[in-house]
Amino acid sequence: xxxxxxxxxxxxxxxxxxxxxxxxxxxxxxxxxxxxxxxxxxxxxxxxxxxxxxxxxxxxxxxxxxxxxxxxxxxxxxxxxxxxxxxxxxxxxxxxxxxxxxxxxxxxxxxxxxxxxxxxxxxxxxxxxxxxxxxxxxxxxxxxxxxxxxxxxxxxxxxxxxxxxxxxxxxxxxxxxxxxxxxxxxxxxxxxxxxxxxxxxxxxxxxxxxxxxxxxxxxxxxxxxxxxxxxxxxxxxxxxxxxxxxxxxxxxxxxxxxxxxxxxxxxxxxxxxxxxxxxxxxxxxxxxxxxxxxxxxxxxxxxxxxxxxxxxxxxxxxxxxxxxxxxxxxxxxxxxxxxxxxxxxxxxxxxxxxxxxxxxxxxxxxxxxxxxxxxxxxxxxxxxxxxxxxxxxxxxxxxxxxxxxxxxxxxxxxxxxxxxxxxxxxxxxxxxxxxxxxxxxxxxxxxxxxxxxxxxxxxxxxxxxxxxxxxxxxxxxxxxxxxxxxxxxxxxxxxxxxxxxxxxxxxxxxxxxxxxxxxxxxxxxxxxxxxxxxxxxxxxxxxxxxxxxxxxxxxxxxxxxxxxxxxxxxxxxxxxxxxxxxxxxxxxxxxxxxxxxxxxxxxxxx
Length: 606
Description:
Elements: E1 11-15, E2 20-24, E3 29-33, E4 41-43, E5 54-59, E6 63-69, E7 76-82, E8 85-92, E9 96-97, E10 103-104, E11 108-118, E12 121-127, E13 137-141, E14 146-150, E15 157-162, H1 166-170, E16 175-176, E17 181-186, H2 196-215, H3 224-236, E18 268-269, H4 270-282, H5 286-299, E19 310-311, E20 322-323, E21 337-338, H6 349-364, H7 369-389, H8 408-427, H9 431-451, E22 453-454, E23 459-460, H10 475-478, H11 487-500, E24 501-502, E25 505-506, E26 521-522, H12 523-535, H13 539-550, E27 562-563, E28 570-571, H14 577-590, H15 597-605
Antiparallel strand pairs: 1-2, 2-3, 3-4, 5-12, 6-7, 7-8, 8-11, 9-10, 11-17, 12-16, 13-14, 14-15, 15-17, 18-19, 20-21, 22-23, 24-25, 26-27, 27-28
Helix pairs in contact: 3-14, 4-5, 4-6, 4-14, 6-7, 6-8, 7-8, 8-9, 12-13, 12-14
């Protein structure tokens, strides 16, 4: 299967913080869910060539296709150089601010066809397959629009509006482009007439929004282009309505071709989202942090509310997992899963990662008394949870579905939870809690130092009583548990590199899990190793590895969850928030520090 499948994740992402789409390097929309990120797909070719559905542009003559983003925006330009002419397709989902201060984020996708030269000819293959393509989708052509609707099962529909002839678009007739045109697909029937002027206005306002947003991103001595693009990806994976942050746009893209490690990532993991928010705050995008913390406070209204590891983007707590047997899966990798059973798991690391974000918020911002009191209540509740749970085994950061263990990373993050709680209490002058929590912090650290260290490996290990190594242990320095100069940390970095690095990429771990031995590289772990090498003083090696790793992204600089060790092919859900936040964090450290406003102007001039 692996040799026969020639698919690659050569896609760009577009979106408007309500939903998102993947557009292939040939200009085909192969993934789109409407009206929101976690809705059923209307185009799902990425998961099934035959039954998934797509929205393609098929040129009449041989064409050379170039794809880029329109500067620092989330507008994707696919340029077709054909024998009979040249045209561009500007794909975007409208997003901009209205006069009343609200954001315009309709469940719409616009394809703006820009005529460049000649008389290029092409056909449109508009082939929606609503509700994950469970049943046939019927296409009906009307005067003002083309309507697609389900024929069985749950009722669903979508609408297409165009400046071209409706029948020509819907029936794959040959179209000659003489001037600019547009196609708009929407979950909703439009009340106003859709015109070229209206589509162009939406394009320009959306472009202005993204340029303004990107301009706020902190600049560094190096790597600003890749930081900017990764920040734009992370922004697209944030859900405007609630402040939730998705792990990825897709479901069931396999970690390894032909295997069953296929999961739905269109949900908000507390760990992933909190790490994203911390990085985005460092880049001066503080509104994301505020919305995310509001999401958290709304999730935990009761003092004894148990925090889950993940939630739906609207705060759903039950994410029942089931399989779509009618879909073949990406490169035949079944099953295709919807929902995620991991929501039931116990992972003790989430307390520390969330507490770290709350501490950053208190440290950086003056917050309202009401908001401070809410966050202080959550802080005390999480301390109680850590007190009850830190000494118990759990599923760990990698969500092992069978055996619980005393994972070192989980223990370290329990220490982080209490450490940040102590610092928050100090900021708020709650000295009684400081005195009460300090002994617990010291007790957890002593426990880790005694039980997680292996004399044989000269490294901290994956779990107490085990000799297996794990890349997550590299984060001991990141979270302030150890100094990068500590001999035990230096030894751990080198031991993990020796055991888990393979062909310039990193395993998460090499021991067997629920599905056997891992066989692909986990992208975030490669970034973690690079950062750790840099911090222990091996800077030239780190920079060389970083620039090599960047070359493994797709043509637009985007990363998925995994990479194939041999071919460096992108695997796993895409684009992956985890991978891009680690890219940003590593680039910030290797990039030579923040630039002043004067330095930024000089850089722009050169």
